[in-house]
């Protein structure tokens, strides 16, 4: 792991939520950043859309989300497919049982990966995001999330979220609390947000830095 105290090293904390469309849009830039020598990217799920931040899915919210998603696609090139629109956003209109917009289960799944295969967490996040936005799959159900993790070869994590232990729930709470405390300390208003740490301290980058050119992002990080 890169030492943030080293003069030429940078530690970047990526504050995100797995149900955030903008975070999905930022995924290619985050992947490229993580592959850049001298930079370590730490995933920090905030749980913003879980607990009190969760809400019922309804037609009004679905229409708002789809409009927003089209803007994200234009800016990032990330796909928001018709399968996602019909099977996820329009699902409440097709089913009598109400569904929730709740990132709690997906956040717990990522914590399970962080405990069992930490080097695979970024790939797990990508798999969960693509399952929703490309394949139109349910990432609110723990059972469906376990399927996605198994398909990614993460059987141990899948087993953990099938029957969450007190230790997993506590670890998840600690991660999200830490991320939210960082947001509050730096005045972050939402996600995605990057926090840059090096020998001189810790600074926040605005989320729009993730939706331009990569060279511009890298320059902003190094100048932060």
TrEMBL record:
One of its GO terms (molecular function) is glutathione transferase activity. Signal peptide: none annotated. InterPro entries: DSBA-like_thioredoxin_dom, GST_Kappa/NadH, Thioredoxin-like_sf. GO terms for biological process: glutathione metabolic process. It comes from the Bacteria. Pfam families: DSBA. Residues 14-199 form the DSBA-like thioredoxin domain. This is DsbA family protein.
